[in-house]
Amino acid sequence: MEPSVKFHVSSEVTLVFVFFFTILILTSLSSGILAERDNDPAKFFSQYPGASESTEISQTLLDFWNAISSDGDSEEIGFKTYITPDPPDKVIDHYKDQEPGDGWVKTLQLPNGAESTIIAWKRNGESLQLVIGEDKGKTFILLGYGKKPTDDESNWVFYTEESGLIEDTATVIVEGKDGSIWFGTSDGLIQFVENEWKNYDFGPLERGVTDIAVAEDGDLWVGTWSYGLMYFDGETWNNITEREGLKNDRVSSIAIDSGGKVWVGSLNRKGGLSVYDGVRWTNYSDRDGLPSNYVHSVSISHDDRVWVGTKEGAAIFDGNNWKCFTSKDELLDDEVEEVTVDSEGNLWAVSDQNVYRYDGGEWGAYPYENGIFGNKVFHVEIAPDGRVWFATKAGIACFTGDTWHILSEEDGLPDSYVLSVLVTTDGELWFGTFGDGIGMGPLPDFE
Q1: Least confident range of 150-164, 306-320, 389-403, 409-423
Q2: DSSP letters along 123-189, please?
Q3: Are strands 281-284 and 272-276 parallel, antiparallel or unpaired?
Q4: pLDDT higher at 407 or 76
Q5: Using an 8 Å Cβ cutoff, are 264 and 273 in contact?
Q6: Does domain 157-442 have CATH number 2.130.10.10?
Q7: Edge-to-edge strands of the sheet including 78-84?
Q8: According to a count of CB atoms within 10 Å of the terminal CB, is the N or C end of the chain lower?
Q9: What share of the chain has pLDDT > 90, as a percent?
Q10: pLDDT value at position 297?
Q11: Confidence at 107, pLDDT banded by 50, 70, 90
């Protein structure tokens, strides 16, 4: 089947259309049948002034969709195609100013050359697509609305180096105060802002990012593997090392308390814990009560007590004294690689053998051998709703208060080897994999 329309950026429109529908598949969210059978995309998009509808191209799109769909069912997909003599850049500017509102979230904006572009949005179980291209002096506006009509449905959108990432492995994910998402990799720092990717891979950052913390004013504190901290105020980057008072340049973890103090753990025999009060650095080591100078993780409780996980156990600091917990204390393993305090004040501690929950009185254990986590937990994340999420070698685990839930390749993940996870304030789930890029999607309904 030879299409009748070509985009100037491609030798065959087939490639553009297939790419368009690939994006539709990746960005469509599929929680059952759509509530309404009315799938006219024009009800979500503003009408471009003076554009006329083209039924011929709509039929071509439908033919392509039927050809690449597994079952040929296009009833849930709606298309509208319009033609205008206006140049593509003018049309693009119109739709940038008239983006769909009412809960729609843009998931992609991909220029396809100087005079064509593809944009996609999502909302709950729905998706919108806009493709703008030029042929023979006319601009074509392709509008799509619906969900993926195959049985192999996925809620996830995936990004790799081909999407603009500097690396396909993300070990850290945090949300900025402006809603942007930051990712730490062994090759530098990545920011996802206004639906675009920005890479920071200069100076100490290019040697590897170990942790990221966001201050209340939006400033960014970034830990590096052997070059101390990088501090970013939104305009200027500054490097902070042992010369400025940091205990050790091998930064492992960063946490910020309610008063704005920055707590920094370092993983070195000459390391320990450093705290910056805005004026000076104060350092703590095993001589001051830490179980070990090898600090894996730092976390702040809601009453501003400081928890650390170290090579020789966990410890809590009340501002004056350290209290340590080791293998002598209710089955806690000595090496604690991750500590996180949840919304109820419980401490979650991760070792090589177990995940522990400490309620202030007793330690409860969830052994790896029970199959929840595979044989490794890399990160623990507390969601805004209080649920506890785990990035593991067996996928993403979630504890909802009394029940465990697991997301794996069977649920659409590209790989079950997940290194990092984040739940944003607007209810999106982001995760970083080992070598398979970054994924995002809506929070699963576990009820």
Answers
A1: 150-164
A2: ETTEEEEEEEEEETTEEEEEEEEE---SSS----EEE-GGGT-S-S---EEEE-TTS-EEEEETTEE
A3: antiparallel
A4: 407
A5: yes
A6: yes
A7: 52-53, 78-84, 138-146, 126-135, 117-123, 105-111
A8: C
A9: 54
A10: 98
A11: low
HSE-CB for 333 with a 13 A CA cutoff: 21
The secondary structure of 247-277 as a DSSP string is S-S-EEEEEE-TT--EEEEEBSTT-EEEEE-
Backbone angles phi, psi at 214, to 5 degrees: -110, 125
324 neighbors 306 (Cβ within 8 angstroms): no
For the ranges 54-68, 83-97, 105-119, 427-441, the maximum mean pLDDT occurs at: 427-441
Query: CA torsion sign, 204 to 208 to 214 to 218?
Result: positive
Beta bridge pairs of residue 428: 442
Sign of CA dihedral 77, 82, 88, 93: negative
* 239 and 226 Cβ atoms separated by less than 8 Å: no
Q: Which of 159, 158, 154, 195 is nearest to 29 (CA)?
A: 154
In order of 87, 228, 229, 266, 273, the CA distances from 243 in angstroms are 57, 10, 12, 15, 16
Question: What residues have CB less than 8 Å from 435, skipping those under 6 apart?
Answer: 168, 169, 415, 417
Q: What is the pLDDT of residues 290-302, one digit of tens each?
A: 999 999 999 999 9
Q: Which amino acid is at 142?
A: L
pLDDT of residue 95: 87
Identify the burial level of 436 via C-beta atoms within 10 angstroms of its C-beta, where 0-12 means exposed, 13-18 middle and 19 or more buried. Answer: middle
User: How many alpha carbons lie under 13 Å from residue 58 in its C-beta half-sphere?
Assistant: 17
Helix, strand and coil in the chain, % to nearest 5: 15, 40, 45
Classify residue 199 as exposed, middle or buried by CB count within 10 Å of its CB (0-12, 13-18, 19+): middle
Locate the domains of the chain by residue range: 13-146, 157-442
pLDDT digits (tens, 9 = 90+) for 238-247: 999 999 999 9
Residue 358 pairs with which residues in a beta bridge? 347, 363
Nearest to 121 by CA among 28, 254, 199: 28
pLDDT of 69: 41
Handedness of CA 19, 20, 21, 24 (dihedral sign): positive
* 364 token code pair: 């409860």
